[in-house]
Each structure stands twice: as C-alpha cells, then as structure tokens.
Amino acid sequence: MISKSGILASQPYFYKYCRQKQPEMNALSIRNLRKTYKNGFEALKGIDLDVKAGDFFALLGPNGAGKSTTIGIVSSLVRKTSGTVEVFGHDLDKEREAAKRCIGLVPQEVNFNQFEKVLDIVVNQAGYYGIRRKEALQRAEECLTQLSLWDKRNSVSRHLSGGMKRRLMIARALVHSPKLLILDEPTAGVDIEIRRSMWEFLRKINQEGTTIILTTHYLEEAENLCRHIAIINHGHIVEHNAMADLLRKLHTNRYILELRNPAPFAPTVEGYQLEPLEDHTLAVDVPMDLGLHGLLDQLAAQGMEVVSLRNAANRLEQLFIDLVENQRIDPARKTA
Amino acid sequence: MHHLIAFKTILFKEIHRFVRIWPQTILPSAITTSLYFLIFGTLIGGRVGPMAGMSYMDYIVPGVILMSVITNAYGNVVASFYSTKFQRNIEELLISPIPNWIILAGYVGGGIARGLAVGGVVAIVGMFFTDVRPAHPGLIASVFFMTAALFSLAGFINAVYANSFDDISIVPNFVLTPLVYLGGVFYSIELLPELWRKVSLANPILYMVNAFRYGFVGISDVDIRTAFLIIGGSISILVAWSLVLLRRGTGLKT
C-alpha cells in the first residue's frame, strides 16, 4: 500500500516534516492570494481558501478562472504576487521544504521526460524527496502496481497510451506519500472505464487519509467524489461550501419522464412546469419542496403512466452554470 | 542526508543520459580530435616547425583536450537543462523540496562528468600521437575540474534564458567556438602583433588553455596564479548568477 498503514508506517522519516494530522487542521490554507501576470492580467484577486485535512475537495471554475494559477502557486510552479499559503501549517515562504514535502501534484499536461523509462521516472522522483534508491524501487513497485503499470515499468514513457500517462503521473505524485494530493483535471481525455477506475483509486487513498484537491471539468466527477467545493471565477471565490449544502441551494430539478403510451394532450399539473418533448417523453421542472410523488400521482390520474425517469442535467452542473452566469460580469466591476 | 540523495539522483540521471546516447555525446569528440591531431599535428604540424621550443603536436595536445572539455561540459548542461524545460519535467524538480543549490550542483556535476569522460577519451587518443605526459598532475586535475565546472555553469545560464532550441546553439556557435579557437589552443600569443596579443588577454579561455598546457609541458603564455584567479572568480560570479536565476524562477516559473 502507498498508504500510512503500509510502507509509510515503517518509514517515519517521510513524515518528519509533515506534522501529524489533527482533526481540525487545515491541509491547505490560503489568505488574500493575488497573482498578476507580466502582461497585466490579474488571475487571482485576493482569494481565501481552506481545505480541511482528510477532505476530498473540488476546485471548480470555467477556463481562465484562476484554478490552475492557484494550484501552480501552491505547488511552487507559479510565483504569487502577494498573500500567504500554508500546507499542513507550514508557510510556503518560511518553511518551504517542509510544505513541499506534504504535496503531490498531478498536473493537467504530461510533464515527464518522454524518453525515460516508466520505472526511472517514478524512482527519480522519489530520489528528489531524499528517498534512498532501494526504498524508492520498493515504493515505485507498489505505486505502479496499484495503478496497473508495473508491467510497463521498462517501457519508454512516450510509448504509453494517454490513460497510462495519466496513471503514471499519479504514481509519480504518490511515490513520496504526500499528505496532500492535488490533481489538475486528472481524467481529462480518458475513457469512462479508466475514469471510473481512477475514481475508485482516489476514493481509496482519500479514505486512507490523503487529502485530495481536484479540479475537473466533469462536474459529475466532483459531485461523486468531493465533500467540499469551491468555485472560482474571474479570480474570485464565488462559492465555498460543503457539497451537500451547495446542492441544497438548488430550487428545482429537471427530469425527463418516459411514458408508457403517447401523451394524448399536453398535461398540466399545478406547481410543476411540464414540457412535451416527443410522443412518449416529457420534461418537467420539479420544485425541491414539492418532490416527485405528487407529480406521478397526478399524471397517473390523467391516464399517463410513467415507466422511467432521469435527471435532465447533472445537478452540480446546473448550479455551476447559475453561479458562473451570475458572475458573467466581473464581480469587481459589478461592485465598482 | 536527503539533500545528498537528491544530488546523487540528479547527477546519476545526467550521467545515465549522456552515457545512454554515447554515439552522440562521446564518440564525435573522439573522432573530431583525432582528425585535429592527424591534420594539424602530423600533416601540417610537420611543416609548421617547433612552437615555444617543442614540436607543434606536443604544443596543441593539451589545448585540444581542454577544448573538448569546454564544449562538452557546456553542451551537456545547456542541452539537458533546456530539454528538461522544454518537456516541462523541470516541474518535477520545482515542486520537490530540493534546494536550488542542489539542483545547480546536480546539473553542473553532470557537465563535469561529461567533460571528464570526453576529455579522458581525447587524452587517450592524444597519447597515440605524442609522447607528452603530465608534468603537474594536480594542476592538470584542478584546471580540468574548474574549467568543466565553469562552462557547465555557463551552459546552465544559457539554458535558463533559452526559449527555443536555436537559443541553445547561438552561444556555442557564435561565442564559445571563436573564443576557444582564439584562446591559444593552436598557437602561442607571442606570435601575434602587440595589439592582438593584448586583445587575446581579455579572452578567459586563453588562461585556462595555458594553465592546462603548463600542467603538461611546463610552458605558459600567462601567469598561472592569474589564470586560477580568473577561473575561480568566473566560477563564483556564475554560481551567484545561476542561484539568483533559480530563486527568481527566471525562465522557469510564470
């Protein structure tokens, strides 16, 4: 296992710099973080963000919102303009080495040497964290096996498929057993089967104690995996909440109903907005406070039997679009 | 201890890289310098006559060895570090807790290792053409090591600023090669007119070549202590410059 229960437990050296997990400790704490690029573009306009230790956290936002800049600053790939970042209580400026030991990063783009062998990439990464070669080989074997890449250990990395390259980057990020794993769109462009297996793997390491921060464009992925969420837009955090609380903000859900027989007329049910789509299909907006029971009963009373129903859109997606649409105008300018 | 492991990881990775592609990294220098020895030393050298009281072949061997050290130390670091930037696997180092000076030491160590490997091969080839043997082995080793370190640092700085593969070939082709050829590898500056002799003294490579030659044959156009001061001073400046670049993240971070 790559977990604390396995090889980490036998290697206290690894956690030398990472303070022991405390129940209310923040894995990540960001205060008034600002980033202005050389061309004058203000990517972050003073964001605050807290991620609790052990959390599975989603950082969402449209393209160019500031997600990757935030992750870049936390992982020391982007220089901040001002503000503070703490990782498990270690200030990234004052305790740089200690903070960095706690972080593992899976970037958006492939960033390993395409001419190196799979095993060398993972073993070298362990070496950068001061892990002796013998132990690095053992850890690499465990990580690569968990991600089904051990058979490919002697392959040159450029010959791997897209999904394998993603898994290799996860293995590399985990080889030093970070307490905080940051994944920047890890499942972009991989097929659904690999995506599901990655979800399973990420859930497992999160249950074993690794804090995970995930950015993704697949909102279904965030809704399925994450317990807390922040939405960033135009360099501002526009939402920072528990996933369940956020979803409760939805006032209506849109469903698609399949009818056994074609609807003889456009049905109307008080409190619900119904829209015929095809002969056998209706779309309906269901207010959260009314629920589905009344609707199904009243349709049955009108002689329309519902044989199946499904969500018209992912719930989080609906909320995300609402939030981003509301922020379409830069909030800084809105308040100006 | 973990810094030492990190240093060894970078160093061995760098050595593994140039050894794996030895037909591109080691063989060409061996062939080129063999041709230098054959053409300039044996064929033309016989007609040139003695230089500074010794055969022309004996005179050029130390300089040719050091020339291969300079070009290979520089070439190794500039190509490797720029490639690391280009493929973005520099991010592996930037996110890790390795101090900047260890990153620098690892790459410079790789450049010195390549200089040592290629210089060693060239020295062995040279021994087939001349009877010259090291007169001052300690001095030879010092100049060898310091020169390799200096040009590894120069290659590192070039790679940090480079934005394209063109940028990593401009300095070697248009700056380094002329300085090497005008640095007294093939002639004594005593042969030059007064003006050009003074101009040559501004070329730092002249001091390295002459100090290295002194280690073999005991003859130099310049003062050896001055040569060490220039090499040591240049190393100090380039180390400071490199560390400032790494701390600022110039060319590496946005």
How would you explain this protein's 3D organization?
The complex is a heterodimer of chains A (336) and B (254). Chain A is an alpha/beta fold. Chain A has 2 domains: 12-247, 3-Layer(aba) Sandwich (Rossmann fold); 250-316, Alpha-Beta Plaits, CATH 3.30.70.1560. Chain A is built from 11 helices and 14 strands. Chain A has helices spanning 67-74, 96-101, 118-128, 133-146, 162-174, 192-207, 219-225, 243-248, 293-301, 315-326, 331-335, and strands at 26-36, 42-52, 56-60, 82-87, 90-91, 103-106, 180-184, 211-215, 228-233, 236-242, 252-259, 273-278, 281-287, 306-311. In chain A, the strands form 3 sheets. A 6-stranded mixed sheet of chain A has the order 6-7-8-3-9-10, sandwiched between helices. In chain A, a hairpin with a 2-residue loop joins strand 12 and strand 13 (281-287). In chain A, helix 3 crosses helix 4 (133-146), helix 4 (133-146) crosses helix 5 and helix 7 (219-225) crosses helix 10. Chain B has 254 residues and is mostly helical. Chain B has one domain (2-248). Chain B has helices at residues 2-20, 22-25, 27-48, 56-86, 90-95, 100-127, 137-161, 167-181, 194-200, 204-217, 224-248. In chain B, helix 3 packs across helix 6 (100-127) and helix 10 (204-217) packs across helix 11 (224-248). The longest helix of chain B is centred in the N-terminal third of the chain and has 31 residues, at 56-86. The radius of gyration of chain B is 19 Å and the shape is globular. The mean pLDDT of chain B is 89. Chains A and B meet through helix 2 and helix 3 of A and helix 1 and helix 5 of B.
